[in-house]
Amino acid sequence: MSAVVSIENLKQDEVKRIERIDGVDTPIPGNITFFRQSAKTPIAPCAIFNLHDIPGRFGETHFHAVDGFQIIVDGKGKLGRHDVSPYWVHFSRAYTPYGPLQSDRNVGWAMLTLRARYDPGAQIFPESRHKLNQVPNRRPWQAAKTITFPPQGPGIRLQDVPEIKDEQGLFVQTLTMAPHTHVVAPDPSGGDGQFVVAFKGSLIHDGKEHKAMTVAFIKPVEDAFDIHAGAQGLEGLILNFPRVGPRIDDARSPSAANGFRKWQCLLCAFSYDEALGMPEDGIPAGTRWQDVPDSWSCPDCSATKSDFQMVEI
């Protein structure tokens, strides 16, 4: 049976550590844990919510040993050089570095992390970089999109997020439901587990109304999940993890213009296209790779220019 947990029935974890932020020893607030894993339950869901992270808290570039979603629910900050705010959805494959992460110095942020398998913890750069060389057939990849939910209407609005999708079962869908409506989620058997998250409104399950935030996890062997909106309707996401196994080679798109080349980050697979440049970084379209400043770094994982390689077209 699918597991459904509402934040209204949970308590915040106790503070377990002190970190030095801007020169001040700061207690880190506990998380709210919807689903907890351990090494004894390697195939089990993990759903952790940083309710109100400390403003200005900094996290080094890192990677995880399993696939994962991160969703900004409140506040704002940066991942790498990307500005993030609600509802920013980020997916990273196992062994794909990303970061650094920093919550806004004034308002902080609240982030929901989802995984379908046990993860031993963040592997911090640069100390853990050598571990990536030990992973056979590593296929680094990550994708992100800021989600905008359509306004609630008289029925149900279910929309794909094409930026976060692959051929092995990965997908994300936005869901907006009018009060007391009903829809069946996609079949979970094509992936490695599926989360349904209600950010607003409520979800009715087993005759009980679960107010947002509510998180449901559906195993691949279970039937498709019946989603029933409560009296206030529902606004949320359906997030499906890809199957575990050898990764399919990602399609290589040609450069936007003949004579230009593409360069790809060895660590996280971000691509620099000479034809497009990086205008947001002050690098005009048409800038050759050799003319990109040596001080430039990957916007997704902060790797240096020397960590890029030529992409074969």
Q: What's the gist of this structure?
A:
The protein has one helix at residues 129-132, and strands at residues 3-6, 18-21, 24-27, 32-35, 46-50, 58-59, 62-63, 68-75, 77-79, 82-84, 88-92, 101-103, 109-115, 123-124, 142-146, 156-165, 171-177, 182-184, 194-205, 208-211, 214-218, 226-240, 262-265, 271-273, 308-310. It is mainly β.
Question: How does this model look, in words?
Answer:
Helix content is 1%, strand content 41%. The protein is mostly beta strands. The strands form six sheets. Strands 1, 16, 17, 18, 19, 20, 21 and 22 form an eight-stranded antiparallel β-sheet that branches. The chain has a six-stranded antiparallel β-sheet with strand order 4-5-13-8-11-15, with no helix packed on it. Strand 2 (18-21) and strand 3 (24-27) form a beta hairpin. It is globular, with a radius of gyration of 20 Å.
Number of strands: 25
Helix content: under 10%
Number of helical runs?
Answer: 1
**Distance separating the two termini:** 47 Å
Task: Tell me the β content.
Answer: 35-45%
Structural class call reads: mainly beta
Shape: globular
Poorly predicted sequence stretches spanning 5 or more consecutive residues: none
